[in-house]
Amino acid sequence: QSAVNVPRDFEGCSTLRKYFGQLHYLQSRIPMGAEQEAAVPIAWTEIFSGKTVTHEDIKYEQACILYNLGALHSMLGAMDKRVSEECAAGAFTYLRDHFPHSYSVDMSHQILNLNINLMLGQAQECLLEKSMLDNRKSFLVARISAQVVDYYKEACRALENSETASLLGKIQKDWKKLVQMKIYYFAAVAHLHMGKQAEEQQKFGERVIYFQSALDKLNEAIKLAKGQPETVQEALRFTMDVIGGKYNSAKKDNDFIYHEAVPALDTLQSVKGAPLVKALPVNPTDPAVTGPDIFAKLVPMAAHEASSLYSEEKAKLLRDVMAKIEAKNEVLDQFMDSMQLDPETVDNLDMYSHIPPILMEKCAALSVRPDTVKNLVQSMQVLSGVFTDVEASLKEIRDLLEEDEVQEQKLQELLGKVPPPQGSSPPPPSPGLAEVSKEWSKYLEVHEKASFTNTELHKAMNLHIGNLRLLSGPLEQVRAALPSPTLTEDDKQVLQNLKRILAKVQEMRDQRMSLEQQLREMIQKDDITTSLVTTDCSEMKKLFEEQLKKYDQIKVYLEQNLAAQENVLKALTDANVKYAAVRKALAEVEHKWNTTVQTLVASYEAYEDLMKKSQEGKDFYTDLEGKAAKLLEKARAACQAAEANRQQILEKEMKKQPPPRPTAPKPALQKKPLELDAGGLDTMDLPPLGSLVLSDLPEELRSL
Length: 704
Fold this sequence. Notes:
A hairpin with a 6-residue loop joins strand 1 (about 40-45) and strand 2. This protein has helices at about 10-25, 60-80, 90-100, 110-135, 140-160, 160-170, 170-200, 205-225, 230-260, 285-290, 300-340, 355-365, 370-415, 430-470, 475-480, 490-525, 530-535, 540-550, 550-655, and strands at about 40-45, 50-55.
């Protein structure tokens, strides 16, 4: 009811658009078309003939609403100020292109063409007036005016059609005369501005012919304007004053000053029109215009099936794009793996500017224990002292045992030279010395094993003591002890270039992931079921193509991203070649740096172990020292007892044997030659053999 009795204002236009949209939604669900099950008779009155026309077709209702929408727009345009180039042609264009022309004579192709071009022509007039008020360039104004002429010529051709003439009757002649007058008038305006352009270009001959042509066309317009309102007559007179004045001035200047040849008009380039106006588009499914679809819950099965087909199209699009992305990603991953370049640590120069946290922790721990090194040194010195004492005791015991063994051997040799009496047995060994020797061997074995451990402990201490002193000292010394790379300016430039390209690689990865995510989200949210409901089956493929175009932009971005990969990787290859020498040097320094840090940390961690082992060593050697000292005393006593026993044995053996028959000593065995006088041996002062012990005899005489 509101659409039939529509108010003559923009609210009325809004009502017509909403009703038209809801009709579109309805006819997509209910079979109300011609000869369909739910078709109902729809009646409208023709505007020119006054006849009532009835059709059982919902599209006829839509067509009549569209016609009225265009008519209402034209009324509002005529009442409005001439400042807008938007026009009513959109409704008539949509009606001409989407609906049959057989519903009524005022919806025939010729009538609709007439309406469309009349609306466009008047809209272009508005733009022309605005351009002249804005003092646009003469050539642009001429082209806009020429387009007005083109629109009115199309309208004039429609008016001259016999069907149109019979339908319009007397109106046809009046409209034709007015349109023709406008054709001549705006042609005159176009040539006026072409003449002004020639004047600007100092083509004074062309200026004359353009102004003359403008004057001729204006005269034709004046002839056709008889019977027009006074406002039209006044506008024509004003234009005549302007063009006539321009023509007379131009002709006079050329005749007396410039003397340029005046070319024929047909030798000059024709003015091509510039269509700058647009018809208000009609979109029957735009929710902003039609409001919410009041039949939204009625979704035909065909729409669901079409939605499934569209989903498959989206899935195919995604598969194609993902295949390209995955192929490029695989190449990129393999390339980066082969390069072994980590953007985070490609130069790692920052790590050399400060002490690592783990080392700072050890320095802090030692700072609250200032006597760490002193305590370790003192502990090791005490251990060394006890160790030396034990070693000295064991050596002295060994010397005693060896000396006793030598003396025992000499005794046995002496006894062996003197035949023992029949039935006598050798002297029994000293049980005290045998026990001492056994214990000494045991202590010596323990000492030798402990000696190796003690040596290793001293090596470890010497290895770690310097590091502990360093960690206990100022932090500047610790930092100075850590290796750091020395790079030239060229090396730094190589590094910066490599980091820049690696950043590009990461940027390319991130952008690719972002675009992929955007594409997936777009596809997931893309539901065109509502559009499918209102689309004819024959238009489905076209609708799919149009809807899939929304992905074109993001596909272009992805293709650009994928195409850039080859250039980025080539640049990275070149940069990596230059980086090779720098990389080797940095790797060596980093290895030294890590080794130094690990060594210092190991020295700290070894401190407690060194102190513990040092204390264990002191305890062990203190115990061993006590045992060795006791054994030494025992060895001394046993050796003294053994020596006394040997003396007794020797004395007994010497008493048992008869005195040997003296013989002249061999000169070779004498330390001092014996001079024998006449008395010989009888005159020598020799001590009695019985009073001598074996140890008192010279070495040469002991065997005698």
